[in-house]
Structure formats: structure tokens, C-alpha cells
Amino acid sequence: MPNDALISMEPRGLVGALQPVAIIGGMGPEAGVDMTSRFLEACRSEMRLLGQAIRDQSYPPHVLIQFCVPDRTAAFRGEGASPVPALVAALGTARAAGAKVCGMACNTVHLWHKDVVELFPGLELVNIAEETAKAAKRVGAASAAVLATSATQESGLYRNALEERGLRVVDRSTDEMNDVHRAIFQIKAGNVAAATPIIEAAVASALAEADCVVLGCTELGLVIKPESYATGAVLDAADVLASRLAYHAFHKQCARPSPDHE
């Protein structure tokens, strides 16, 4: 669940009307539900930091949209349909519901972030890779290893974001990346028990070489808990996204880009 330490490093501005939030899920469905739970926990952290009572009426309006989205890895490889039409439909539904801030509960789909954000200028569509790279910088990491789907790895989504902030990316072996990719799809299929030891071994291997490990797939947080490791050693991108959505929801300056704090 979202880490209060990560949230507390954000500057607090004036709080106005709560900004309605939409979570775009369906990639897979459990990750969308999990993101909603993380968002609610992040909202409670915001309330505590702001000295607000935690009650039903204190939460920002929010909606989870679970549409069927084509496989992102297949789309990246040119072997399947683009996810863009489904994302446009989901974001259109979010806009119709009154959302001002949106987050996509999938890392790989952020390969199409630029394509869809330009179509919805009135929505703040948080970029999970950019925000996670900022979080890695804030916790003092000089190097990071990323665990993610093969498409996320090959695209350079996280490499670019991390290197732009001066972090060295520690490459993973092809065998390990393939094992992690297969384990992610085992989680999607409900085979969590089979996937867990594979992911745990990958995290341990990565931590032997890097200051921190980025869980760059929303399924990974279903089996790995960052609080089981040293503070800042494991960054779950899902936690970062949930925290940013809550931050935007509670603060009037939500349309502004978040600072890097570098």
C-alpha cells in the first residue's frame, strides 16, 4: 500500500474542492481493483497529513473504469490491436463522469500515454514511469533495476525516465526478464503461488546489484510488498501512481506538473 514517507516528501499547497479522479483499469482487472484500494489508502495518508478527519465525506469523488483493452505487449510488437481505441473510450467515460485527474493501472500501456493525453487536454493523465523515476531520485537511489513485462523493458519506458534524472539503470539478464514476463502473466491468470518465488528471486537478484528495484508492472505489487524490504529498496510503481492521484485530488494545483525535487 502507498508509503506515507513517499507522500510526505511532496510539497503541500492550498486545498480547494476535491478533484474527481478516474482509474483506468482492466489491464488486468485485479490490478485495477488493487489500484483503487491503494488510492483510497493514499487518500487516508493525505487526510492525516492535512489534519483532516477520515470519514466517508472526506474522500474525493472517484470511479474505476474496467474496459477490455487489447494486449499491450502484442500491440508493441505489432502482433495485435492497438490499445488506443479502448483507452480513448475509457478516458471519454472518465471525462463524462466528471474526472479531472486520471491514472492508468498498467505500466506497459504508458507506451501510448502521449497518444491519448493529447486527445484529452482537460484531463491530468498521470505518467506512472515519470512519477516513479522522480520517486527513485527522491529516496536517494543512484542506480535502479526494473522488473516489468518484456514490452516495457524493450521500449525503454523506465530506462529513459530514470536516466533523465541521473540514475544508472542496471540491466537484467534476458533469462530473468523472460522469467519475470511469464510470471506476470501467471499472476494475471490467477496463478499467484507459482509466480511468487520467481518474482521474489528476481527482486533479490536485482537488489544485489542496484540501490533500488522498481516494480514496473501493476501485477508485481500483488505478490511483492515493499515494506518487507529496507526503506526505499523496492519502489512499487502502483504505489507511486496511487499516491500521485491522491495528491492531485486534494490539491488545487493538480494541473501543474509535479516537481522532481532534484
Concise structural overview:
This protein is of the alpha/beta class and 262 residues long.
Domain count: the total is: 2
Order of helices and strands: HEHEHHEHEHEHHEHHEEH
C-alpha termini separation: 25 Å
- Residue share in helix: 40-55%
Strand content: 5-15%
Large-scale geometry: globular
User: Uncertain spans, ≥5 residues at pLDDT below 50?
Assistant: 254-259
Oligomer: single chain
What is the average of the pLDDT values? 91
Side-by-side strand order of the widest sheet: 2-1-3-4
Instruction: Report the structural category.
Output: alpha/beta
CATH topology of the largest domain: Rossmann fold
CATH architectural group of the largest domain: 3-Layer(aba) Sandwich
Please report the total strand number as a whole number.
8
What CATH first level of the largest domain would be assigned? Answer: Alpha Beta
The total count of helices amounts to 11
Main sheet summary: 4 strands, parallel
Please give a structural write-up:
It is an enzyme of class 5 (isomerase). Its EC number is 5.1.1.13. InterPro entries: Asp/Glu/hydantoin_racemase, Asp/Glu_race, Asp_race. It comes from Paraburkholderia fynbosensis. This protein has helices spanning 4-8, 29-50, 72-76, 84-96, 113-117, 128-138, 150-155, 157-164, 174-188, 192-207, 237-250, and strands at residues 21-25, 62-66, 101-104, 124-125, 143-147, 168-169, 212-215, 234-236. It contains 11 helices and 8 strands. The protein is 46% helix and 11% strand. It is globular. Helix 2 crosses helix 11 (237-250), helix 6 (128-138) packs across helix 11 and helix 9 packs antiparallel against helix 10 (192-207). The strands form 2 sheets. The protein has a 4-stranded parallel sheet with strand order 2-1-3-4, with helices on both faces. The longest helix has 22 residues, at 29-50. It has 262 residues and is of the alpha/beta class. The chain folds into 2 domains: 4-127 and 239-255, Rossmann fold; 130-238, Rossmann fold (3-Layer(aba) Sandwich).
